[in-house]
Design goal:
Helix content is 73%, strand content 4%. β2 and β3 form a beta hairpin. It is mainly α and 252 residues long. It contains 14 helices and three strands.
Length: 252
């Protein structure tokens, strides 16, 4: 099956002049040229045009597009990559839509939402680290769960989280031991907090991976200066880590 240049241009939303230019620079030659001089495009050429238009929409210039296509000799792999780029673009647009809806929700309620809530996801600042430690699915499911909340629900969650952190800091400042009943109650509360986040092993009831997650978080709180500061400094983070380790040993 093949189509004329006019048919392809109409379906793709570009001009015939654009397709002729792509031919002139070697980016998209027609599959054949008829005796009448008309250009014709088969399915493979249309698939290539599809990739050209996607890369153009992503902001690449024509020389860069040509370089990408020349390096992608495996057409099936290129199409899978095409799907991945489209899905990433869809996710980006979905996230922006949710952010605007949260802003609208804040305006309707007569309150201004915080910039953090309106522009960021649940764990966006730690995306690479979350994926490296626990996988893409954990990040995506927890982030989708966060973006699905209304502004009020997000505020409630953040306030609950702030109370959890404050409880940890207060227990540490009071000098209690990580093995004390009070510290273990805080650890149980922390694990329950994790259980409420979709995508985490704790939420899914995966015992082995839950243990790994809880212990890993404890280490992260100590090793990452941003997390350590959240818990009042390195000593406070060490208290949280040791309390979680003890909880895992006794209760998980």
């Amino acid at each position: 099956m093949e189509w004329t240049i006019q048919q392809v241009a109409h379906s793709a939303g570009v001009s015939s002049r654009t397709l002729r230019h792509y031919d002139d620079i070697g980016l998209l030659p027609p599959s054949r040229v008829g005796d009448n001089g008309y250009r014709y495009y088969d399915a493979a050429a249309v698939a290539r045009l599809q990739r050209v238009l996607l890369l153009r929409d992503l902001g690449l210039g024509l020389p860069a597009i040509a370089d990408v296509l020349d390096r992608q000799q495996d057409e099936e792999a290129a199409l899978r990559n095409h799907i991945g780029l489209l899905e990433a673009e869809r996710d980006r647009l979905d996230q922006r839509i949710r952010a605007v809806r949260r802003t609208l929700d804040a305006r309707r309620s007569g309150r201004d939402g915080s910039m953090e809530m309106m522009l960021e996801g649940f764990n966006d600042p730690y995306r690479d680290e979350v994926i490296a430690r626990w996988g893409e699915r954990v990040f995506q499911e927890s982030n989708d769960w966060w973006h699905g909340k209304s502004l009020r629900e997000q505020r409630d969650w953040k306030q609950d989280t702030d109370r959890l952190v404050a409880g940890w800091i207060e227990a540490w400042e009071d000098g209690v031991s990580p093995t004390s009943d009070r510290a273990q109650a805080m650890a149980a509360r922390h694990v329950e907090w994790l259980r409420r986040i979709p995508g985490t092993p704790v939420a899914e009831g995966d015992r082995e991976r839950s243990i790994e997650l809880v212990r890993g978080l404890g280490r992260l709180y100590v090793e990452d200066p941003n997390y350590a500061a959240t818990y009042g400094g390195t000593d406070g983070a060490v208290f949280v880590r040791d309390s979680l380790d003890e909880y895992v040993r006794l209760s998980m």
